[in-house]
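Good morning N.,

You mentioned wanting to compare the apo and holo forms, so I went ahead and generated the holo version with 6-O-phosphono-beta-D-tagatofuranose. This is what I fed in:
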Amino acid sequence: MGQHSAAVWDYRAATEITKDWNGIDQVVLRNPQGALARVSLHGGQVTSWRNEHGEELLFTSSKAIFKPPKAMRGGIPICFPQFGNCGSLEQHGFARNKIWAIDDNPQPLLPNDSNVKSFIDLLLKPSEEDLKCWPNSFELRLRVSLATDGDLTLTSRVRNVNGKPFSFSFAYHTYLSVSDISEVRIEGLETLDYLDNLCRRERFTEQGDAITFESELDRVYLSSPNVIAVLDHEKKRTYVIRKDGLPDAVVWNPWEKKSKSMADIGDEEYKQMVCVDGAAIEKPVTLKPGEEWTGRLQLSVVPSSFCSEHLNL
Ligand code: TA6
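and this is what came out, ligand included:
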């Protein structure tokens, strides 16, 4: 019997660099089953994550402005070194509005990365302009990886490159694609305290046995568990968000009125999206010279039946 040669996975072919519609480099990651992720060097932003059937799992607004320096509305913008507009910088910080570089000195894969089939390492260092508005000597590295089972993992490392100590907040501003926001349930955030951005960031305690949506919702859940489930009723599938180094979770849907006031989202598109962001907001991260912080986010999709039986939320 002929020997079936074990197909050797070509990592380099699985990570392709192309140009996007603005002529900006983007990296396409693929796995053997046909799943795919796209990462733009504009902002280090994941702009697409598709399963092996080609279904898009991240929301992208049909009216997104794909023009620097504005971040594209959708995908996973990187919010650093500030979340929100409570500091001196632009809303959600400058990282998502800068052109990143491909890190030509990436860390090797680790033994527990055995199921990673394609990855890219990006690097953001402050420009002279950045140092004028945020005078801190940092390096921000982002690894985006796609695994055999289609899971998408983002690992960010912020290092204080021997400057004075500095503090920052951080969020993976994750726009998940959903069938109908009014039939979405989020599990794992029950009983937590949250800051309500619709009530001057006042602190409340979640009373519900899950988060559901009937109007605009904009909250930062504090000290949240590292596993959160976002159930899409119509598709009977659940996004499982696993995080590490990211104690808080932002949940946001603009609903109808806010959407109509935003130029870069369709009036009805709020129905097809929900933001659930792994974040470090309530207690900013402080790094002394030479110290490094790591924030990791893993996104999976499972049948909702699996979720309720196997995820002890
Ligand atoms: O909580 C999420 C949030 O801060 C909302 O208040 C809303 O502003 C959203 O982020 C979108 O922000 P962006 O700057 O991406 O338009």
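The chain has one domain: 6-310.

Happy to go through it together on a call whenever suits you.

Best,
F.
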